[in-house]
Write a structure and sequence with these properties.
heterodimer, A: 497 residues, alpha+beta, Beta-lactamase, five-stranded mixed β-sheet, five-stranded antiparallel β-sheet, 39% helix, 17% strand, B: 463 residues, mainly alpha, two-stranded antiparallel sheet, 16 helices, globular, FtsW/RodA/SpoVE family cell cycle protein (chain B), cell shape (chain B), transmembrane helix (chain B), transmembrane (chain B)
């Protein structure tokens, strides 16, 4: 019997070995796979198990965390949620995250390995770092001015520091309160259904996520290309332009909203936005030079990451062969119609290039990131995207843009004590151009005694209150731009005092 | 080792087991509230006093008993209490630890009764048929009561829920051991030869097969497949040890596989368990969220090598039965692979000591009983631990000593009490054998004769 007892014991030992091998499989070999399973709530429990790091605007946190007492312990809160929603995005325990909350999630949630004082040790002890802090470049006054300017409308504002590329304001309207989506309750689900199904798309950040036909504001790019290419020279010389202008190879006649465009000088045509002059100028400059300049401004390339992605702005319809790019299309593209589309941020970059010395700054939203204790982890370094035009061209364009504000369509943007340049735009869109036109205004401002420009801004209003035909960038968009520029200039003046 | 030395080892290990348990209890409190839990002293006393009483009973009534058995039982029981207390924190209003502590006390009380009252295990042999009738009565009782979660294994009396099947395990082990000790030789060497198998006469084989079929039938009706599997395994192991016929083991295994396949195909409850085992994440892919087994696997995976630490895991996500059938997942998550290996080592040691007692005993009944009881523990650990880790289809069963559930806990204490008694007898048997060998007259010849004599006593040809 002894032999059989030993054999039965051997069987038990085999069962034990099977258990051990399987446990090693589950806890070691398959551990990562199981832990990474989206249905495994441990990741989320850990992520929400501590207060999320904060996002700072003007040195003050615009976010917070509240203790829910639930399985997902801390839920996100927002002060002035709708105001900063186009910057922060939302961080929901159910619906994921967007914008800065998404782009800097690892840092805010505390999972970023850079946060750990001793990364190897924390891997062993499983201690989680406190969430880090994201310091934004947003100017709270400018942001508020833009937000209030767009109140009740659909549209967007993007404002940049033209020298560094710091984003000073990023506003989209209508907005929403991201705090409504934070938790796991029925209220969050209702809010999500309401916001997600809203035809006005409040969760869309129109300043970076939506492209519009830029209309006449694109004439800045056309003028830059023409001046750089030598097609245009003297700003005051007659341009030999007919009115109306028959698009090359077609019988379509392009007209103007204003008088006096026949043979107008570049200065007059820019100030009063003569379509005929710039359509012809674009055709004269040619596809090649126009495309090159547009690309140098940032068109026809993936949008910058600020750190979240910006939609691609286009000049020439991508992929179209040179043969197909006929001159009639070039004429329309040159006045910001046809296939030309731009995000408000892209147009702010155009204004920045003019305001500066002709080079386009890379826009950024995060000034620096720190640990919860305040140790800086990363700090932004201003960079240049491209030189978009020659220095002298930029100088002449500044002259043209100040002309718009001093005695042109952009008079509403004038600020006493500051040099302001601008360009209005009224963009047709929809089938047969039947939609309410978009009102545009792009501009920059420099305090009279300051050597460098303080702000460049782009404003688009989708549904200007004026009726069709009356709509104009100067009437609807320029006052908003002025308010933003005044806020930045005022802040800067206050700081220097 | 002198017998007093054995008891010294035992009391030291029991003290260590109590300390480890109290330490675990404190670790939970510190992790959750940053302070020692207020009940730590009471909990420690609640564990230490019964453990000490058990030790004293062993010291005076079974001084030769294996000194490792009792400490392992205390440690596993203490660890189980820690894990249940820890899970209680996640389910306010459903505290299970206090009841479990009471059941532990009752279990130790029964341990004391067995150790003190049962002078010689061979007495049990006389009650073989009483045991089997009792086992059948216990197994059939739940049929009169409503099913709980698909299994008809509960008896509700005066607010208590009992699983009589747990107690039946011990009774059946006693019966099988007694019956096979008496008829093992006849089973192995009588009857006609049929192809490769020697089939014993119906008179010898009849009763045991009938009773076994009956008990398994009852279990299938009650849908408690874990216990059914356990009884079958126990039967096959003891049959093999008693007769040494591999053919029967093979036939038994074939029967088991055929039965398992048939039940798995036909019975929807079991079929679902098999499907879960084959595709633990199917419910996730179907958009219904993770099922229990998936949650259990997630818990083990979250533990990794070192575990999250007591009180720091989320095994409560398993939901229903997290404190009972799935208690090992909490150990796996919070104590990690390291802790789990330690737990398995404790079970392995317990089983090994049971087998060792079986080897050292001289009477076939005692040998079979020791092997049977140890095998119950081994099979039970395998079935439930294999189930919750996805090794085999999950069948509801209590992890011995760890899981919430009074019936199981009390039964396991009785098993350990019997093993204590058996190991004490084994020690005395070994001492007598030494005395036989040391007897001066006869010299070489007497010593040479002792071996075959012992062997024939075993009823086998080989020592």
């Amino acid at each position: 019997m002894t032999r059989y007892i030993r054999r039965a014991a051997l069987l038990c030992a085999l069962l034990l070995v099977a258990l051990l091998v399987n446990v090693v499989r589950v806890q070691l070999v398959r551990s990562e796979t199981y832990s990474g399973n989206p249905a495994n709530r441990r990741t989320d429990i850990a992520r929400w198990g501590q207060p999320r790091g904060d996002i700072l605007v003007g040195g003050r946190p615009v976010t917070g965390s509240r203790d829910t007492g639930g399985l997902f312990r801390y839920a996100r809160t927002y002060t002035d949620g709708p105001l900063y929603a186009p910057v922060t995005g939302f961080a929901s325990q159910v619906y994921g995250s967007t914008l800065l909350e998404h782009a800097r999630d690892g840092l805010l949630a505390g999972t970023d390995p850079g946060l750990a004082a001793l990364p190897l040790l924390s891997g062993l002890t499983r201690a989680r770092s406190a969430g880090g802090t994201v310091v934004t470049t947003i100017d709270p006054e400018a942001q508020r001015a833009a937000h209030e300017g767009l109140a009740g409308r659909h549209g967007a504002v993007a404002a940049l520091d033209p020298v560094t590329g710091r984003i000073l304001a990023l506003v989209s309207a209508p907005s929403y309160d991201p705090g409504e989506l934070s938790g796991t309750g029925a209220a969050s689900a209702r809010a999500w259904r309401r916001l997600d199904g809203d035809p006005d798309r409040p969760m869309l950040n129109r300043a970076v996520g939506q492209t519009y036909p830029p209309g006449s504001t694109f004439k800045v790019v056309t003028a830059a290309a023409a001046l750089d290419a030598g097609v245009a020279g003297d700003l005051d010389a007659p341009t030999d332009s007919p009115d109306p202008y028959t698009l090359p190879g077609t019988r379509t006649r392009l007209t103007n909203e204003v008088e006096g465009c026949t043979d107008a000088s570049l200065r007059y045509a820019f100030a009063w936005s003569c379509n005929t002059v710039f359509a012809r100028l674009g055709v004269e400059t040619g596809w090649k030079a126009m495309s090159r300049t547009a690309a140098a401004f940032g068109f026809d390339a993936p949008g910058p990451r600020v750190p979240f992605a910006v939609a691609r702005s286009t000049f020439a319809a991508s992929g179209a062969s040179a043969a197909k790019r006929d001159r009639a299309q070039l004429a329309l593209s040159s006045i910001g119609q046809f296939d030309t589309r731009a995000t408000p941020l892209q147009m702010a970059m155009v204004a920045s290039a003019v305001a500066g010395d002709g080079s386009v700054p890379v826009p950024y939203l995060v000034e620096r990131t720190t640990t919860a204790a305040g140790t800086t982890l990363s700090a932004a370094r201003p960079r240049t995207l491209h030189r978009a035009m020659r220095r002298e061209t930029a100088e002449r364009l500044r002259e043209l843009m100040t002309g718009v504000v001093e005695e042109g369509t952009g008079a509403n943007a004038a600020i006493p004590g500051a040099v302001v340049g601008g360009k209005t735009g009224t963009a047709q869109h929809g089938v047969g151009n039947a939609g309410t036109p978009y009102a545009w205004f792009i501009s920059w401002a420099r305090a009279e005694d300051a050597p460098a420009p303080a702000v460049a801004v782009a404003v688009v209003v989708e549904d200007a209150r004026a009726g069709r035909g009356e709509i104009s960038g100067g009437g609807d968009a320029a006052p908003i731009a002025r308010a933003v520029m005044e806020a930045v200039l005022g802040d800067r003046a206050a700081r220097e005092r | 080792m002198r017998q007093t030395g054995r008891r010294g080892v035992e009391v030291s290990l029991v003290g260590l087991a109590v300390l480890l348990s109290v330490y675990g209890y404190c670790a939970v409190g510190l992790a959750r509230h940053g302070a020692l839990p207020p009940g730590a002293a009471g909990y420690g006393a609640g564990l230490a006093v019964p453990a000490l009483l058990a030790h004293l009973a062993v010291r005076f009534r079974a001084p030769g008993a294996d000194p490792v058995l009792l400490p392992i039982a205390v440690l596993l029981n203490g660890l189980g209490l820690v894990l249940i207390y820890r899970l209680d924190l996640e389910t306010p209003g459903e505290a299970a630890a206090p009841a479990q502590l009471n059941w532990s006390a009752l279990g130790v009380a029964l341990f004391l009764v067995v150790v003190v009252a049962l002078d010689d295990h061979r007495v049990l042999r006389r009650y073989g048929y009483v045991c089997v009738l009792g086992a059948l009565a216990l197994l059939t009782a739940p049929i009169l009561f409503p099913a709980v979660n698909g299994a008809r294994i509960w008896v509700r009396l005066a607010g208590f829920s009992l699983q009589p099947g747990e107690f039946a395990k011990v009774l059946l082990a006693v019966f099988f051991a007694g019956y096979l000790a008496a008829n093992g030789h006849a089973l192995a060497h009588s009857g006609r030869r049929l192809w490769l198998l020697r089939v014993p006469t119906g008179r010898v084989l009849g009763p045991v097969v009938a009773i076994w079929l009956l008990s398994v039938g009852v279990l299938v009706l009650e849908r408690d497949l874990g216990t059914s599997l356990l009884f079958f395994g126990l039967f096959v192991v003891l049959l093999y040890v008693a007769t040494g016929r591999t053919g029967w083991v093979a036939a038994g295994l074939l029967l088991a596989v055929a039965g398992a396949v048939a039940v798995g195909r036909l019975e929807p409850h079991v079929h679902g368990r098999v499907e879960d085992w084959l595709h633990p994440f199917a419910s996730i892919e179907a958009g219904q969220g993770p099922g229990q087994l998936a949650q259990s696997l997630f818990a083990f995976a979250a533990g990794g090598v070192l575990g999250t630490g007591l009180g720091e895991g989320h095994s409560v996500l398993i939901g229903f039965a997290a404190k009972s059938d799935f208690i090992l997942a909490t150990a796996g998550e919070e104590l990690g692979l390291a802790g789990l290996l330690a737990v398995f080592a404790l079970y392995a040691l317990l089983v090994e000591r049971g087998y060792r007692a079986g080897l050292a005993l001289r009477d076939p009944f005692g040998r079979l009983l020791a092997v049977g009881l140890a095998s119950i523990l081994a099979l039970q650990v395998f079935v439930i631990a294999g189930g919750v880790t996805g090794l085999i289809p999950l069948t509801g069963m209590a992890m011995p000593f760890l899981a919430q559930g009074g019936s199981s806990l009390v039964t396991n204490w009785v098993i350990v009490a019997l093993l204590v008694r058996l190991s004490d007898r084994a020690r005395r048997d070994a001492a007598e054998r030494e005395d036989d060998l040391a007897r001066p007259p006869g010299g070489e010849a007497a010593a040479a004769g002792a071996g075959p004599a012992a062997s024939s006593y075993d009823g086998t040809a080989a020592p």
